[in-house]
Amino acid sequence: MRAPYGLDILDNCLACPMREEHLFCHLPDAAVQRLNEIKSTAVYPKSAMLFIEGQQPRGVFVLCAGKAKLSTSSSEGRTVITKIAEPGDVLGLSAAISNRPYEVTAEMIEPGQANFITRDALLHFLREHGVVALRVAEELSRNYYTAYEGIRTLGLTNSPSERFAKLLLGWSNAAGNGDPPQVKLTLTHEEIAEIIGTTRETVSRLLSQFKRKQLVQFKGANLIIRNKAALEDMVNS
Amino acid sequence: MRAPYGLDILDNCLACPMREEHLFCHLPDAAVQRLNEIKSTAVYPKSAMLFIEGQQPRGVFVLCAGKAKLSTSSSEGRTVITKIAEPGDVLGLSAAISNRPYEVTAEMIEPGQANFITRDALLHFLREHGVVALRVAEELSRNYYTAYEGIRTLGLTNSPSERFAKLLLGWSNAAGNGDPPQVKLTLTHEEIAEIIGTTRETVSRLLSQFKRKQLVQFKGANLIIRNKAALEDMVNS
DNA sequence: GGGTTTTTGTGATCCTGATCACAGAGGGAT
DNA sequence: ATCCCTCTGTGATCAGGATCACAAAAACCC
Questions:
Q1: Which chain B residue has its CA at the smallest distance from A78's CA?
Q2: B70-74 long-range contacts, CB within 8 A, separation 24+
Q3: Which of A6, A79, A158, B67 is the most buried (most CB within 10 A)?
Q4: Is the pTM of this model over 0.90?
């Protein structure tokens, strides 16, 4: 059976093995079964909004396939992307747990699939299964560390070039260690700018500058990192 | 009985009533009693380090009196202050829960008192008392929101003036609503700079500039906010 | 394939804060 | 008082990006 957008439907994506540290993996059977009862699965096209900053938290989404960008905007239209979520990530957890409005907007940037669990069902479930509550606490502290890394990046570096170099290195690490390391560039310059807190033009210029200096090189949509050492130098300048 | 530094010893500061939403308040008697058994209390002078960025997490500190600054530094000596912790705050929680190194350094900026609970004892306690684990999850999501606010501040505003105005307004709100609102300035310009991500000089200049424009005014160590509206305008410029 | 929209490249200008460099002010100690 | 050390104020300089303004290129859609 084929889902739209060329994705395979995962009939039990809560238990998907893609991330060992996954929130809802390796739970007691009773818990897994209960989870399967309270979750509902849906498929989302590109640009679908899972939830929007400021909304009351309806529940959590467990991303099974596709990618989503989490962003927040100021009243004047400035936007920061705080995270690119990947399969296995749990979205909206802290809002659901603390019953505050969603603090970010989650928008699919690649078509995908997610499980949804309502807030009530989740809290009920957590009260029944104390062990899982600890898991949730761990997941929240992971979220916290991610946010915290963002602060370090935005606060401890002043130059966009530094942040951009850091971002590229981060991506190439996450993508595994090819040699030479390479990264598939799926985001627009605008989006990259919103991650590293600068303008689209600056990202364009940095990219050409990096190419000119032979730090990176394009092969289709893939960015090959030619001079990793030089990029690393820029980061701890 | 008087403690050093003119502080009253709180003989059971875990249950201190200062913050209703306090992590360890309003728990079942059994839990409170167990907590009292596993905690240990100590008094800290100004400049004492509760823990340092990168150390393995020994446990959590519940701040009972005094203030502490949480900060992180880059290899080149640049520093960001992520939070000024106040009585009732739990420090080192996410590190302890997730068993990662402390992500920040906690240094007392006012003498005070804190309870310490070792990581092992805490985890043990949480496994016994599932309800409290949920509380911990809530506290962690509070931490997350705080970090997240930091990202918004650093990422969505470009001008130090904007961030400084925002900081002052935040402080005046936290201090309750005097009229005119006023704030006790306990931090050095350097420290303020490390909060809003700028330099000491810029903070000095901004302060004089705000005085010149009659936005604020000094009364000893207290900063009186003369023109709140104007500051608010700067924030959503 | 043509027309439309989104994305990217690049020049010119301008301005804010970072940086460097001192001098003065305050605050403890002895 | 005196010394010392940490803070604060302010000037001068300078560079790196933000901003504005187009044009080219690519992606997208009937």
A1: B156
A2: B70/B104, B70/B105, B70/B106, B71/B104, B71/B105, B71/B107, B71/B194, B72/A148, B72/A151, B72/A152, B72/A156, B72/B103, B72/B104, B72/B105, B73/A156, B73/B105, B74/A152, B74/A156, B74/A157, B74/A236
A3: B67
A4: no
